[in-house]
Automatic annotation (TrEMBL):
Protein name per the record: Dihydropyrimidinase
EC annotation from Swiss-Prot or TrEMBL: 3.5.2.2
Stored NCBIfam families: D-hydantoinase
Organism annotation: Deinococcus detaillensis
Positions bearing N6-carboxylysine: 149
Required co-factors: Zn(2+)
CDD domains recorded: D-HYD
Pfam families cross-referenced by the UniProt entry: Amidohydro_1
Domain Amidohydrolase-related residue range list: 49-436
Gene3D superfamilies: Metal-dependent hydrolases, Urease, subunit C, domain 1
Sorted UniProt keywords: Hydrolase, Metal-binding
Amino acid sequence: MSLIISGGTVVTADGRFQADVRVDGGKITALGLDLAQSGDKIIDASGKYVLPGGIDVHTHLSMPSMGTVTCDDYYTGQVAAAMGGTTTHLDFCIQPKGSSLRAALDIWHGRAKGQAVIDYGFHVAVTDPLPEVLDEIAGLPDQGVTSIKLFLAYKDTLQVDDTAVFRCLERARDAGVLTLVHAENGDAIEILMAEAVARGETAPKYHALTRPPELEAEATGRAIALAEVLGAPLYIVHLSCRPALARVREAQARGARVTAETCTQYFFFTKDDLDCLGFEGAKWVCSPPLREKEDQAALWAAVGDGTLSVISTDHCPFRFDTQKTLGRDNFTLIPNGVPGIEERLMVLHQAGVRGGHFSLERFVALTATNPARSFGLGGVKGAIAPGYDADLALWDLERPHTITAKTNHGAVDYSLYEGMEVRGMPVTVLVRGQTVIDQGRLITERGSGQFLHRQRI
Ligand SMILES: [Zn+2]
C-alpha cells in the first residue's frame, strides 16, 4: 500500500506540472498521472499546489543569549515551522567557552531529543578555538555535522579573531565542512555602542545606528579574502545591505566559492521600524540591523539574479514582555533577534511571488532546493523527485490569512508581520510521508522529527 498525493500541481525549482506523488516508506517513489491503485491511501490535492517542504537553515531554538534563552524550544519552534510549511531546519549549536564541540553537540541533541516534529540538523558555532577544538573539526562529518559558524561580531562573547577564522576555514575545507560567518566588525561596533551609551543614546534605534553597513561590508570582504586565499567554501549568513552584497558579487565574479543568504525581515522592514514611540522598536532589534528601502530593493534583485541563493529566517525569538525589556534603559542589553519561522514562506510568497519579484519556482529554489544543496542534503531534501524524502507542503494559493501573534503557534508574544494580509498558505504538511499538519491542526507526535546526518560539502 502506497500513499498517493493525488491531483495537485507539483512545483519544483525547475517548473510545475500536474502529477500524483507516490510515497512508499517515507520516500517519493513515483510522479505521474493517475498513480492510485486499489488499497492506496489517498490525500486529495486537487486545486492545491504541492511544494517541497521549506528548509530554514538559520534558526536559534532554546539558545542561551545575552542573559536569557530564546523562547521557542524544539517543540514550539518546530510546530510553528511546520504550521508555516517548513519541514527541515538547521539550528545553531553554540560551543560554550572551554567546552569541546562534541560536548556542545551533546547538549543540543539533548534539547531536541523527544521534542522534534520536523527534521533538523546542527551547525556548530566555534567560539573558543583552542587547538584541541580545531582538531575536532575533521571529525564533525562523522557526527552528521558538515557546517561550522564563526562570529566576527559580539566581542568578548561569541567573536573570534582572524587567526581563528583562518585556521577554521582551513580545517573545514580539508574536512568537507562549510564555514558560515556572521560578518560584522565587532571591534568597531563595540566602540560605537559604548560611545552612544556614554552620550545617553539608549533607545532601540541606536542599535541600528551603531552597526553601520560599512562594518558589515568590511567583515564580509575580510572573510571572503581569507577563504579565497585558502580555496575554502564560505557562506555569508543574514546579508543585509548593498555594500556587503557588492563584496559577494565581486567574489563570485572572480570564481570564489562564496554563497550567501539573506533573511525574510530584511525585505520588509527598515531601521525606521526601530524608532517607535516608547520601547516598541526593541521588537525589531536584530543583527545585522534592519537597513534602508534601497537595501530592500537590492536584496530583491540579488535573490532574483542568484547572488543570494537562500532566504532563511534567523529565527531567534525573545518575548517582548519579559525578554526584550531587559534593554529598556540601554539598547545594548536588548536581546538580539527576531521571530519569523512560521511566517517566512507565507510573507515571501505574498511579497516575493505575488509582488512580482520572482516566480513560484524561484520561491521553491530559495526556500527549499538551494538550502538543501548548500548544506549537504542534496538528493534527500528540498525537491520533489523519486528518491527524495516525502517532505511536502500542500498550498492553497487562494486562501486568505491575516498574520497575527494571536494565532501563530510559537512561544513568542508578537509578530513583526502583525496584521499583514496574505493570500496563499500551506494547508497540509507532510514529513517523510507522515502528515504533521492538516487544516491548521497538528497531528503528529512530539519526537517524530529526526536528526539529519548531512553529507560533506
Ligand atoms: Zn543567527
